Amino acid sequence: MSMGGLLVYVLMAALVGVGLTSPVSKSDGNTKQGGILPQLLARREAVWNAAENVAKREQDTQMSMARMARTAHLSEDQREFMSKQIKQAISELMNECPGRDYQGWVDFGRRSAE
C-alpha cells in the first residue's frame, strides 16, 4: 500500500471516529438541522473530497518526480535550452492553428462562389 493510500485510510478513520463520537442534540430523534442523515451525508462528502485531494497530490508528486528523473542527467544549460525550445514550439503551434483554419474557410468560400 502506498503512503498516499495509507493516509487516505487514516483520514477516513479519523473522520468516522469523530462523526461517531460527536454529540447529537436530540429532539424527537432529529437534530436542529433537520436530522442526522444530512449531517452524515455532509461528512461523507467531506471525507470523499479529502481523499480526492490526497490522491491528486500524490499523483502530482509522482509526475514531478518522474519529470526530475527524466532531466536529472542534463546540465542546467541543457535544461534551460530545452525549456525554451518547448515554449517556442507551443507558441508556434498556438499561432498556426487559427490562421490555418481561417485561411481554409476563406478558400472554401471562394471556391463555392466560382
From TrEMBL:
Which keywords label this protein?
A: Amidation, Signal, Sulfation
Q: Where is the signal peptide?
A: 1-21
Q: Protein name, please? A: Cholecystokinin-like
Q: Which InterPro entries match?
A: CCK-like, Gastrin/CCK
One GO cellular component, as annotated? axon
Q: Which Pfam families match?
A: Gastrin
> Could you tell me one molecular function GO term of this UniProt entry?
neuropeptide hormone activity
Where the record annotates domain Gastrin/cholecystokinin peptide hormone, the positions are 5-114
- Domain of life, per lineage: Eukaryota
Keyword check for Iron-sulfur: no
Name the Gene Ontology biological process terms. Answer: digestion
